[in-house]
Amino acid sequence: MRAPVTIAIYVGDDCWGGLALLAREAFAIAGTLHARNADLQAAELFRVRLAAIDGAPVRSFTGPRLQPEAMLAELPAPDAVIVPPYYLPLAARQPIAPALQEWLLQAHAAGAMLVGMAGGVRILAETGLLNGREVTGNLSDQRVFALHYPEVRFSPDVPLVIDGSIISAGSVNPCLDACSYLVGHFHGDAVAHKLSRYTNPASQPSAGRLAIRNAGLKQHGDQRIRQAQEYIERCFKQELTVEGAAQRTAMSVRNFSRRFQHAVGMPPHIYIARCRGEYAKELLARPGLSMLQVALQSGFRSEAMLRRTFSQLFGVSPAAFRSGAAHSPARYLE
User: Fold this and answer.
1) Number of neighbouring beta carbons within 10 Å of residue 64
2) What is the reported pTM?
3) Full 3-state SS string of 122-170
4) Mean confidence (pLDDT) of the chain
5) By the 8 A CB rule, do 104 and 124 touch?
6) Domains plus CATH for the chain?
7) Tens of pLDDT, residues 67-83
């Protein structure tokens, strides 16, 4: 039997205790959903520990205390580290303890995935690991990053950013999407999808799910193309063209298309269509929307364009997909 994936959630004074515990419980839920067994030990896919610099209780933002289960210096190297949101209202730089910085650097060097949630991204920024990377976070921290972390590309308008082994989430729902991404990274998309469907409302697809699905297409070194991918994922529901995406990156259409194909493995117009098609999948699995509504909300100009593109991408018509998803939603949305 495969050993559980180890995750450390760093807690300290003024952390958002509720989200630290929510993340912990999300991983437990992923195991029970996958095993169809409410026995936490029998269904354990992840072994999650609240970790702190020392073993003393820490004070959460609103006062309730959290009891750490491990000290950083004594914790075996985890597979992933989560830094939950922290209440950091001041624009002044807030250095972190040397012991915490050293532990985060060592965890990253050993191959751990690092997740910063909202204000927790500022803690990761103090390590220097975010320099040259794109991250998201609290909109109110835009000035903080401009002043103190100018080498970090801060994009607070993006709900979830997956930049290699570093993940950042801007608010509560994207924090859960970040947990789903880790579930998928370690245990596969089918397990992640079960958690995502459980934790997100049924009315609309989650903001970060598309970024999760496309994460494997961003493991290249072309930062400008990665920026273009993020732009497409934010704007595909609008009148988006390859020409517009190329203009956004300050490249000619020819050069943009060539670099996009080389980095991503598909031309940009297919990437745009893929984003629209994946979003349409989510809408088709939910009752109450007509085929025309699905088309327009997904960025297609007509129902006919939805049918043609969807069939080309997935080898099945939207109507057939909807019928299959109605009988087995988890299978069809994996």
Assistant:
1) 10
2) 0.76
3) HHHHCCCCCCCCEECCCHHHHHHHHHHCCCCEECCCCCEEEECCEEEEC
4) 90
5) yes
6) 5-216 (3.40.50.880), 223-332 (1.10.10.60)
7) 999 999 999 999 999 99
